[in-house]
Protein backbone atom coordinates (compact mmCIF):
# COMPACT_ATOMS: atom_id res chain seq x y z
CA UNK A 1 0.00 0.00 0.00
CA UNK A 2 2.84 2.37 0.81
CA UNK A 3 4.42 1.83 -2.62
CA UNK A 4 1.04 2.34 -4.30
CA UNK A 5 0.47 5.61 -2.43
CA UNK A 6 3.93 6.88 -3.31
CA UNK A 7 3.44 5.97 -6.98
CA UNK A 8 0.37 8.18 -7.05
CA UNK A 9 2.40 11.06 -5.62
CA UNK A 10 5.22 10.52 -8.12
CA UNK A 11 2.76 10.45 -11.04
CA UNK A 12 1.27 13.77 -9.93
CA UNK A 13 4.73 15.34 -9.64
CA UNK A 14 6.19 14.25 -12.94
CA UNK A 15 3.22 14.22 -15.33
CA UNK A 16 2.83 17.96 -15.90
CA UNK A 17 6.57 18.59 -15.99
CA UNK A 18 7.52 15.94 -18.52
CA UNK A 19 4.59 16.66 -20.83
CA UNK A 20 5.83 20.24 -21.06
CA UNK A 21 9.60 19.89 -21.04
CA UNK A 22 10.20 16.21 -21.84
CA UNK A 23 12.27 13.56 -20.06
CA UNK A 24 14.86 10.83 -20.48
CA UNK A 25 14.59 7.20 -19.40
CA UNK A 26 17.47 4.83 -18.69
CA UNK A 27 16.57 1.16 -19.00
CA UNK A 28 18.40 -2.12 -18.46
CA UNK A 29 17.76 -5.85 -18.03
CA UNK A 30 19.19 -8.01 -15.25
CA UNK A 31 18.74 -11.64 -14.21
CA UNK A 32 19.06 -12.50 -10.52
CA UNK A 33 21.07 -15.54 -9.53
CA UNK A 34 18.71 -17.38 -7.18
CA UNK A 35 15.56 -18.11 -9.18
CA UNK A 36 16.88 -16.76 -12.49
CA UNK A 37 14.10 -14.17 -12.66
CA UNK A 38 14.77 -11.41 -15.19
CA UNK A 39 13.88 -7.80 -14.40
CA UNK A 40 13.52 -4.73 -16.60
CA UNK A 41 14.36 -1.52 -14.76
CA UNK A 42 13.62 2.07 -15.72
CA UNK A 43 14.75 5.34 -14.16
CA UNK A 44 13.25 8.64 -15.27
CA UNK A 45 15.29 11.85 -15.52
CA UNK A 46 13.70 15.29 -15.77
CA UNK A 47 14.10 18.94 -14.79
CA UNK A 48 11.27 20.32 -12.68
CA UNK A 49 9.72 23.80 -12.62
CA UNK A 50 12.41 24.95 -10.16
CA UNK A 51 15.13 23.89 -12.64
CA UNK A 52 16.23 21.00 -10.43
CA UNK A 53 17.44 17.78 -12.02
CA UNK A 54 15.63 14.72 -10.70
CA UNK A 55 16.24 11.01 -11.26
CA UNK A 56 13.58 8.64 -9.98
CA UNK A 57 13.71 4.85 -10.03
CA UNK A 58 10.32 3.84 -11.39
CA UNK A 59 10.37 0.06 -11.39
CA UNK A 60 12.25 -3.19 -11.72
CA UNK A 61 9.48 -5.14 -13.40
CA UNK A 62 9.90 -8.93 -13.53
CA UNK A 63 9.44 -10.77 -16.80
CA UNK A 64 7.16 -13.76 -16.97
CA UNK A 65 9.52 -16.79 -16.91
CA UNK A 66 7.98 -18.06 -20.14
CA UNK A 67 8.54 -14.77 -21.98
CA UNK A 68 11.58 -14.54 -24.24
CA UNK A 69 13.56 -11.28 -24.22
CA UNK A 70 12.82 -10.31 -27.81
CA UNK A 71 12.79 -6.67 -28.85
CA UNK A 72 9.01 -6.73 -29.19
CA UNK A 73 8.47 -8.23 -25.73
CA UNK A 74 10.88 -5.79 -24.12
CA UNK A 75 9.16 -2.85 -25.80
CA UNK A 76 5.72 -4.03 -24.66
CA UNK A 77 6.94 -4.65 -21.09
CA UNK A 78 8.69 -1.27 -20.89
CA UNK A 79 5.84 0.83 -22.32
CA UNK A 80 3.24 -0.97 -20.22
CA UNK A 81 5.11 -0.27 -16.97
CA UNK A 82 5.84 3.34 -17.95
CA UNK A 83 2.10 3.92 -18.43
CA UNK A 84 1.57 3.02 -14.76
CA UNK A 85 3.36 6.32 -14.05
CA UNK A 86 1.36 8.30 -16.59
CA UNK A 87 4.16 8.18 -19.17
CA UNK A 88 2.89 7.37 -22.64
CA UNK A 89 6.04 7.15 -24.75
CA UNK A 90 4.02 7.01 -27.96
CA UNK A 91 2.20 10.27 -27.20
CA UNK A 92 5.38 12.00 -26.04
CA UNK A 93 7.10 11.32 -29.35
CA UNK A 94 10.38 13.21 -29.55
CA UNK A 95 10.06 14.54 -26.00
CA UNK A 96 11.27 11.26 -24.53
CA UNK A 97 14.84 9.98 -24.94
CA UNK A 98 15.99 6.48 -23.98
CA UNK A 99 19.55 5.66 -22.89
CA UNK A 100 20.52 1.97 -22.88
CA UNK A 101 23.39 -0.39 -23.55
CA UNK A 102 24.08 -1.67 -27.06
CA UNK A 103 22.27 -4.99 -26.66
CA UNK A 104 20.61 -6.03 -29.93
CA UNK A 105 17.28 -6.76 -28.22
CA UNK A 106 17.21 -3.33 -26.54
CA UNK A 107 18.09 -1.59 -29.80
CA UNK A 108 15.29 -3.50 -31.53
CA UNK A 109 12.81 -2.69 -28.75
CA UNK A 110 13.34 1.06 -29.08
CA UNK A 111 13.88 1.42 -32.82
CA UNK A 112 10.80 3.65 -33.10
CA UNK A 113 12.13 6.08 -30.47
CA UNK A 114 15.21 8.22 -29.97
CA UNK A 115 17.68 5.92 -28.22
CA UNK A 116 21.23 6.80 -27.21
CA UNK A 117 24.02 4.36 -26.40
CA UNK A 118 25.41 4.34 -22.86
CA UNK A 119 28.70 6.22 -23.24
CA UNK A 120 30.38 4.34 -20.38
CA UNK A 121 29.57 1.10 -22.17
CA UNK A 122 31.18 2.49 -25.33
CA UNK A 123 34.38 3.27 -23.42
CA UNK A 124 34.41 -0.19 -21.88
CA UNK A 125 33.90 -1.87 -25.27
CA UNK A 126 36.66 0.30 -26.74
CA UNK A 127 39.19 -0.85 -24.16
CA UNK A 128 38.01 -4.46 -24.34
CA UNK A 129 38.62 -4.39 -28.09
CA UNK A 130 42.01 -2.72 -27.75
CA UNK A 131 43.23 -5.20 -25.14
CA UNK A 132 41.61 -8.24 -26.74
CA UNK A 133 43.73 -11.33 -27.57
CA UNK A 134 44.22 -10.44 -31.24
CA UNK A 135 45.65 -7.02 -30.39
CA UNK A 136 47.44 -7.64 -27.11
CA UNK A 137 49.59 -10.39 -28.67
CA UNK A 138 51.09 -7.67 -30.86
CA UNK A 139 52.15 -5.82 -27.69
CA UNK A 140 54.02 -8.53 -25.73
CA UNK A 141 55.47 -6.18 -23.09
CA UNK A 142 52.00 -4.87 -22.21
CA UNK A 143 50.56 -8.40 -22.23
CA UNK A 144 53.29 -9.66 -19.89
CA UNK A 145 52.81 -6.70 -17.57
CA UNK A 146 49.07 -7.31 -17.23
CA UNK A 147 49.62 -11.02 -16.55
CA UNK A 148 52.33 -10.38 -13.94
CA UNK A 149 50.33 -7.69 -12.13
CA UNK A 150 47.25 -9.94 -11.94
CA UNK A 151 49.39 -12.75 -10.51
CA UNK A 152 50.92 -10.34 -7.99
CA UNK A 153 47.54 -9.09 -6.77
CA UNK A 154 46.21 -12.65 -6.52
CA UNK A 155 49.27 -13.67 -4.48
CA UNK A 156 48.74 -10.84 -1.98
CA UNK A 157 45.06 -11.69 -1.68
CA UNK A 158 45.65 -15.38 -0.91
CA UNK A 159 48.93 -15.23 1.02
CA UNK A 160 47.77 -13.01 3.87
CA UNK A 161 50.31 -10.32 2.92
CA UNK A 162 47.59 -7.77 2.10
CA UNK A 163 47.48 -6.53 5.68
CA UNK A 164 51.11 -5.40 5.49
CA UNK A 165 50.19 -2.70 2.95
CA UNK A 166 48.59 0.65 3.77
CA UNK A 167 45.89 0.09 1.15
CA UNK A 168 44.44 -3.06 -0.35
CA UNK A 169 45.48 -4.02 -3.85
CA UNK A 170 42.56 -3.97 -6.29
CA UNK A 171 41.57 -6.97 -8.35
CA UNK A 172 40.35 -6.54 -11.91
CA UNK A 173 36.83 -7.52 -13.00
CA UNK A 174 36.64 -9.26 -16.36
CA UNK A 175 33.65 -7.25 -17.64
CA UNK A 176 34.83 -3.81 -16.51
CA UNK A 177 38.02 -2.54 -18.07
CA UNK A 178 38.30 0.44 -15.74
CA UNK A 179 38.92 -2.07 -12.97
CA UNK A 180 42.22 -2.86 -14.71
CA UNK A 181 43.22 0.75 -14.19
CA UNK A 182 42.32 0.45 -10.50
CA UNK A 183 44.40 -2.73 -10.23
CA UNK A 184 47.44 -1.29 -12.03
CA UNK A 185 47.25 2.00 -10.15
CA UNK A 186 46.97 0.29 -6.76
CA UNK A 187 50.24 -1.53 -7.52
CA UNK A 188 51.97 1.59 -8.86
CA UNK A 189 51.03 3.69 -5.82
CA UNK A 190 52.55 1.12 -3.44
CA UNK A 191 55.31 -0.25 -5.63
CA UNK A 192 58.09 0.36 -3.07
CA UNK A 193 56.05 -1.01 -0.14
CA UNK A 194 55.14 -4.11 -2.15
CA UNK A 195 58.80 -4.63 -3.04
CA UNK A 196 59.77 -4.40 0.65
CA UNK A 197 57.14 -6.92 1.75
CA UNK A 198 58.16 -9.35 -0.98
CA UNK A 199 61.86 -8.95 -0.20
CA UNK A 200 61.21 -9.95 3.43
CA UNK A 201 59.56 -13.17 2.28
CA UNK A 202 62.12 -13.89 -0.45
CA UNK A 203 59.52 -13.34 -3.17
CA UNK A 204 60.93 -10.20 -4.77
CA UNK A 205 60.80 -11.83 -8.20
CA UNK A 206 57.00 -11.42 -8.18
CA UNK A 207 57.45 -7.66 -8.58
CA UNK A 208 60.98 -7.65 -9.95
CA UNK A 209 59.69 -8.82 -13.31
CA UNK A 210 57.24 -5.89 -13.47
CA UNK A 211 58.78 -2.90 -15.26
CA UNK A 212 57.84 0.22 -13.33
CA UNK A 213 58.33 2.39 -16.43
CA UNK A 214 55.90 0.24 -18.45
CA UNK A 215 53.51 0.21 -15.49
CA UNK A 216 53.57 4.01 -15.34
CA UNK A 217 53.05 4.21 -19.10
CA UNK A 218 49.96 1.98 -19.03
CA UNK A 219 48.46 3.72 -16.00
CA UNK A 220 48.97 7.06 -17.72
CA UNK A 221 47.25 5.75 -20.86
CA UNK A 222 44.24 4.33 -19.02
CA UNK A 223 43.75 7.19 -16.56
CA UNK A 224 41.73 9.48 -18.89
CA UNK A 225 39.31 6.61 -19.61
CA UNK A 226 38.79 6.15 -15.87
CA UNK A 227 38.28 9.90 -15.33
CA UNK A 228 35.85 10.11 -18.24
CA UNK A 229 33.78 7.20 -16.96
CA UNK A 230 33.63 8.66 -13.45
CA UNK A 231 32.54 12.06 -14.80
CA UNK A 232 29.94 10.58 -17.15
CA UNK A 233 28.51 8.29 -14.46
CA UNK A 234 27.79 11.29 -12.23
CA UNK A 235 25.44 10.99 -9.25
CA UNK A 236 22.41 12.40 -11.13
CA UNK A 237 22.48 15.77 -9.36
CA UNK A 238 24.29 17.52 -12.22
CA UNK A 239 23.93 17.27 -16.01
CA UNK A 240 26.27 14.80 -17.69
CA UNK A 241 25.10 14.98 -21.32
CA UNK A 242 27.22 18.06 -21.95
CA UNK A 243 30.39 16.09 -21.11
CA UNK A 244 30.04 13.45 -23.84
CA UNK A 245 31.37 15.61 -26.69
CA UNK A 246 34.36 17.13 -24.86
CA UNK A 247 35.39 13.80 -23.36
CA UNK A 248 35.02 12.05 -26.72
CA UNK A 249 37.26 14.58 -28.44
CA UNK A 250 39.75 14.56 -25.57
CA UNK A 251 40.03 10.75 -25.54
CA UNK A 252 40.49 10.54 -29.31
CA UNK A 253 43.24 13.17 -29.09
CA UNK A 254 44.83 11.29 -26.18
CA UNK A 255 44.81 7.96 -28.03
CA UNK A 256 46.02 9.54 -31.28
CA UNK A 257 49.02 10.93 -29.42
CA UNK A 258 49.67 7.52 -27.82
CA UNK A 259 49.94 5.84 -31.23
CA UNK A 260 53.42 7.39 -31.47
CA UNK A 261 54.66 5.26 -28.55
CA UNK A 262 56.02 1.89 -29.75
CA UNK A 263 54.64 0.03 -26.73
CA UNK A 264 51.13 1.48 -27.07
CA UNK A 265 50.88 1.94 -30.83
CA UNK A 266 48.72 -1.12 -31.63
CA UNK A 267 46.43 -0.62 -28.63
CA UNK A 268 46.01 3.13 -29.12
CA UNK A 269 45.27 2.74 -32.83
CA UNK A 270 42.42 0.33 -32.08
CA UNK A 271 41.10 2.74 -29.42
CA UNK A 272 40.94 5.60 -31.92
CA UNK A 273 39.16 3.46 -34.51
CA UNK A 274 36.67 1.94 -32.06
CA UNK A 275 35.88 5.23 -30.36
CA UNK A 276 35.04 6.83 -33.69
CA UNK A 277 32.97 3.84 -34.81
CA UNK A 278 31.00 3.48 -31.59
CA UNK A 279 30.41 7.17 -30.98
CA UNK A 280 29.07 7.63 -34.50
CA UNK A 281 26.59 4.76 -34.14
CA UNK A 282 23.97 7.21 -32.81
CA UNK A 283 24.85 9.95 -35.28
CA UNK A 284 23.83 10.71 -38.83
CA UNK A 285 27.41 11.68 -39.67
CA UNK A 286 30.38 9.36 -39.35
CA UNK A 287 32.96 9.76 -36.57
CA UNK A 288 30.71 12.06 -34.55
CA UNK A 289 28.65 11.98 -31.36
CA UNK A 290 24.87 12.36 -31.39
CA UNK A 291 23.56 15.86 -32.06
CA UNK A 292 21.71 15.84 -28.72
CA UNK A 293 25.02 15.58 -26.86
CA UNK A 294 26.52 18.36 -29.00
CA UNK A 295 23.54 20.59 -28.22
CA UNK A 296 23.95 19.78 -24.51
CA UNK A 297 27.54 21.03 -24.73
CA UNK A 298 26.39 24.21 -26.48
CA UNK A 299 23.83 24.77 -23.71
CA UNK A 300 26.58 24.60 -21.09
CA UNK A 301 27.57 28.29 -20.85
CA UNK A 302 31.28 27.71 -20.23
CA UNK A 303 31.46 25.45 -23.30
CA UNK A 304 29.03 27.34 -25.58
CA UNK A 305 31.86 28.29 -27.95
CA UNK A 306 32.20 24.62 -28.98
CA UNK A 307 35.92 25.13 -29.42
CA UNK A 308 36.45 21.38 -29.72
CA UNK A 309 34.68 21.54 -33.13
CA UNK A 310 35.62 23.28 -36.37
CA UNK A 311 33.50 26.14 -37.73
CA UNK A 312 31.39 23.85 -39.88
CA UNK A 313 30.73 21.62 -36.88
CA UNK A 314 29.71 24.62 -34.77
CA UNK A 315 27.28 25.85 -37.42
CA UNK A 316 25.75 22.38 -37.66
CA UNK A 317 25.07 22.44 -33.92
CA UNK A 318 23.48 25.90 -34.12
CA UNK A 319 21.24 24.63 -36.92
CA UNK A 320 20.42 21.58 -34.81
CA UNK A 321 19.38 23.87 -31.93
CA UNK A 322 17.03 25.83 -34.20
CA UNK A 323 15.46 22.73 -35.71
CA UNK A 324 14.93 21.10 -32.33
CA UNK A 325 13.28 24.17 -30.81
CA UNK A 326 10.92 24.45 -33.78
CA UNK A 327 10.23 20.72 -33.85
CA UNK A 328 9.38 20.52 -30.14
CA UNK A 329 7.61 23.91 -30.03
CA UNK A 330 9.86 25.05 -27.20
CA UNK A 331 9.70 28.62 -28.53
CA UNK A 332 6.08 28.75 -27.29
CA UNK A 333 6.44 26.81 -24.06
CA UNK A 334 6.52 29.89 -21.82
CA UNK A 335 3.57 31.68 -23.42
CA UNK A 336 1.09 30.53 -20.78
CA UNK A 337 3.38 31.69 -17.98
CA UNK A 338 4.04 35.19 -19.25
CA UNK A 339 2.33 37.87 -17.18
CA UNK A 340 0.23 40.28 -19.27
CA UNK A 341 1.89 43.65 -19.70
CA UNK A 342 -0.09 46.38 -17.89
CA UNK A 343 -1.61 49.02 -20.16
CA UNK A 344 0.39 52.22 -20.33
CA UNK A 345 -1.26 55.61 -19.97
CA UNK A 346 -1.16 57.51 -23.26
CA UNK A 347 1.23 60.44 -23.50
CA UNK A 348 1.51 63.22 -26.01
CA UNK A 349 4.03 61.10 -27.88
CA UNK A 350 1.36 58.60 -28.86
CA UNK A 351 0.35 61.07 -31.55
CA UNK A 352 3.64 60.25 -33.27
CA UNK A 353 3.55 56.51 -32.67
CA UNK A 354 4.18 55.75 -36.32
CA UNK A 355 7.72 57.11 -35.87
CA UNK A 356 8.45 55.47 -32.51
CA UNK A 357 11.07 52.75 -32.04
CA UNK A 358 9.40 49.39 -31.52
CA UNK A 359 10.09 47.84 -28.13
CA UNK A 360 11.05 44.18 -28.35
CA UNK A 361 10.09 42.09 -25.35
CA UNK A 362 12.27 39.20 -24.25
CA UNK A 363 9.46 36.80 -25.02
CA UNK A 364 9.16 38.01 -28.61
CA UNK A 365 12.87 37.87 -29.41
CA UNK A 366 13.52 35.84 -32.50
CA UNK A 367 15.39 32.61 -32.01
CA UNK A 368 18.31 33.93 -34.05
CA UNK A 369 18.59 36.93 -31.72
CA UNK A 370 18.48 34.71 -28.61
CA UNK A 371 21.23 32.47 -29.97
CA UNK A 372 23.42 35.39 -31.02
CA UNK A 373 23.04 37.14 -27.65
CA UNK A 374 23.77 33.89 -25.79
CA UNK A 375 26.90 33.25 -27.83
CA UNK A 376 28.29 36.76 -27.35
CA UNK A 377 27.11 37.78 -23.87
CA UNK A 378 29.61 38.45 -21.11
CA UNK A 379 29.52 35.34 -19.00
CA UNK A 380 29.22 35.49 -15.23
CA UNK A 381 29.34 31.83 -14.33
CA UNK A 382 31.91 29.98 -12.27
CA UNK A 383 32.75 26.37 -13.08
CA UNK A 384 31.06 25.39 -9.78
CA UNK A 385 27.75 27.17 -10.48
CA UNK A 386 24.69 25.06 -11.24
CA UNK A 387 24.06 25.18 -14.99
CA UNK A 388 20.33 24.59 -14.70
CA UNK A 389 19.97 27.41 -12.16
CA UNK A 390 21.86 29.67 -14.57
CA UNK A 391 19.29 28.90 -17.26
CA UNK A 392 16.48 29.50 -14.79
CA UNK A 393 17.93 32.92 -13.92
CA UNK A 394 18.27 33.78 -17.61
CA UNK A 395 15.02 32.25 -18.86
CA UNK A 396 13.37 35.61 -19.54
CA UNK A 397 16.28 36.66 -21.76
CA UNK A 398 16.53 33.31 -23.55
CA UNK A 399 13.07 31.66 -23.24
CA UNK A 400 13.40 29.19 -26.11
CA UNK A 401 16.96 28.17 -25.25
CA UNK A 402 16.03 27.84 -21.58
CA UNK A 403 13.22 25.43 -22.40
CA UNK A 404 15.50 23.40 -24.64
CA UNK A 405 18.10 23.27 -21.85
CA UNK A 406 15.52 21.80 -19.45
CA UNK A 407 15.01 18.94 -21.89
CA UNK A 408 18.47 18.23 -23.27
CA UNK A 409 20.36 18.63 -19.99
CA UNK A 410 18.21 16.03 -18.25
CA UNK A 411 19.58 13.31 -20.55
CA UNK A 412 22.18 11.18 -18.74
CA UNK A 413 25.38 10.21 -20.54
CA UNK A 414 25.14 6.61 -19.34
CA UNK A 415 22.63 4.00 -18.23
CA UNK A 416 24.41 3.75 -14.87
CA UNK A 417 21.27 4.77 -12.89
CA UNK A 418 19.50 1.59 -13.99
CA UNK A 419 22.62 -0.47 -13.33
CA UNK A 420 22.75 0.97 -9.80
CA UNK A 421 19.12 -0.06 -9.36
CA UNK A 422 20.08 -3.65 -10.15
CA UNK A 423 22.97 -3.49 -7.73
CA UNK A 424 20.39 -2.72 -5.06
CA UNK A 425 18.20 -5.55 -6.37
CA UNK A 426 21.10 -7.91 -5.84
CA UNK A 427 21.41 -6.85 -2.22
CA UNK A 428 17.66 -7.18 -1.68
CA UNK A 429 17.72 -10.68 -3.13
CA UNK A 430 20.61 -11.93 -1.05
CA UNK A 431 20.13 -15.55 -0.16
CA UNK A 432 18.17 -15.09 3.05
CA UNK A 433 15.61 -12.95 1.21
CA UNK A 434 15.39 -14.93 -2.02
CA UNK A 435 11.86 -15.99 -1.05
CA UNK A 436 10.61 -12.48 -1.83
CA UNK A 437 8.11 -12.25 -4.66
CA UNK A 438 9.52 -10.45 -7.73
CA UNK A 439 6.77 -7.82 -7.42
CA UNK A 440 7.84 -7.17 -3.82
CA UNK A 441 11.41 -6.59 -4.99
CA UNK A 442 10.13 -3.95 -7.42
CA UNK A 443 8.13 -2.26 -4.64
CA UNK A 444 11.10 -2.19 -2.26
CA UNK A 445 13.35 -0.80 -4.98
CA UNK A 446 10.80 1.89 -5.82
CA UNK A 447 10.42 2.91 -2.18
CA UNK A 448 14.18 2.99 -1.65
CA UNK A 449 14.70 5.16 -4.72
CA UNK A 450 11.93 7.65 -3.96
CA UNK A 451 11.72 8.02 -0.17
CA UNK A 452 14.38 10.73 0.06
From TrEMBL:
Alphabetically ordered keywords of this record: Metal-binding, Nucleus, Zinc, Zinc-finger
One Gene Ontology CC term in the entry: nucleus
Pfam families (UniProt xref): Dimer_Tnp_hAT
InterPro entries: HATC_C_dom, RNaseH-like_sf, ZnF_BED_domain_contain
Coiled-coil ranges (or none): none
Keyword match Iron-sulfur: no
Single GO term (MF): protein dimerization activity
Domain HAT C-terminal dimerisation residue range list: 367-451
UniProt main location, coarse: nucleus
Compartment(s): Nucleus
Domain of life, source organism: Eukaryota
The name this protein goes by in its record: HAT C-terminal dimerisation domain-containing protein
Organism expressing this protein natively: Oreochromis niloticus
Amino acid sequence: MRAQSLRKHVVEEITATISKFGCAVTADIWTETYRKTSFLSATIHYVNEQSELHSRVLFAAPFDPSTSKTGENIRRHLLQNLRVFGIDATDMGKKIIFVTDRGANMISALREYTRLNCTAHILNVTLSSAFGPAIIEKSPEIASLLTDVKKLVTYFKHSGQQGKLKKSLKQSIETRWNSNFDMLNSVLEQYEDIASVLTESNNYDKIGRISISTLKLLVSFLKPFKEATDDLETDNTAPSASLVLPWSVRLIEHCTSATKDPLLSEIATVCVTRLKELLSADSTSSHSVHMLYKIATFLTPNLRGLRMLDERGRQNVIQGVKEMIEDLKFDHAHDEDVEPTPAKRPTVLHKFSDWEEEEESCGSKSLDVQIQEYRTMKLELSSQQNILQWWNSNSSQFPALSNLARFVLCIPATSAPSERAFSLCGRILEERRSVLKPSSVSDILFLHGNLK
